[in-house]
Amino acid sequence: MIDSKNRTRFEAIVLPHLNSAFNLACWLTRSPQDAEDVVQEACLRAFKFFDSFHGEDARTWLLTIVRNTFYTWCQDNRGQKQNTVFDEALHSFETIDAASGMPHADNNPEILLLRKDNRRQLQQALESLPLEFREVLVMRELEALSYKQIAGIAGIPIGTVMSRLGRGRKLLAKLLAPAQQEQ
């Protein structure tokens, strides 16, 4: 059992990374509700095995647990289809105004509509990628993890990370190309 000193340490070191954990879980499960379950189970595992954490990168450590928990969850829920629509509000790609730190507000309805449509197309394209490409793209592009961190989380060589990123980006570009031609 973990003592109160380690509990406080756990809260200070691991809990600040819950947003990253939830973000990764959302992209992997394609469902905010399922992501909550995965993150909750991952946090329980992290808390249970916190004694094995020796001060390395807590974010990478937690995301590794989230990823492994997701794959366990997949095996347990293999027969269930993932038809839940991804919640755009949780993963919007809004631009932030550097001066105010607030989302950029553009009064032009046409530009707002185009941005919303672009976000939707990107989201759909990301969701349609095979899991092995989607997870490395999310970790690199949305979570800004290094190749080394991604390799550690996924348990694959750095070269494989680079290969999956390259192939995933090409596939993503191919999926988005027809949409770009329409505009």
Overview of the structural elements:
There is one protein chain. The protein is an all-alpha fold and 183 residues long. 67% of the residues lie in helices and 0% in strands. Helix 2 (18-29) runs parallel beside helix 4 (58-76). The longest helix has 25 residues, at 158-182.
Keywords:
183 residues; mainly alpha
In short, what is this structure?
The chain is an all-alpha fold and 183 residues long.
Beta strands, count? 0
Q: Give the structural class.
A: mainly alpha
In terms of DSSP E residues, the strand content is under 5%
Distance between the termini: 59 Å
Radius of gyration equals 18 Å
Order of helices and strands: HHHHHHHH
The overall average pLDDT, rounded, is 82
Largest sheet: none
- The coarse silhouette is globular
By DSSP (H or I, 4+ residues per run), the number of helices equals 8
Considering DSSP H and I runs of 4 or more, what fraction of the residues is helical?
55-70%
Q: pLDDT under 50 segments (min length 5)?
A: 81-96
Fold topology:
Elements: H1 4-13, H2 18-29, H3 32-48, H4 58-76, H5 109-128, H6 131-142, H7 147-154, H8 158-182
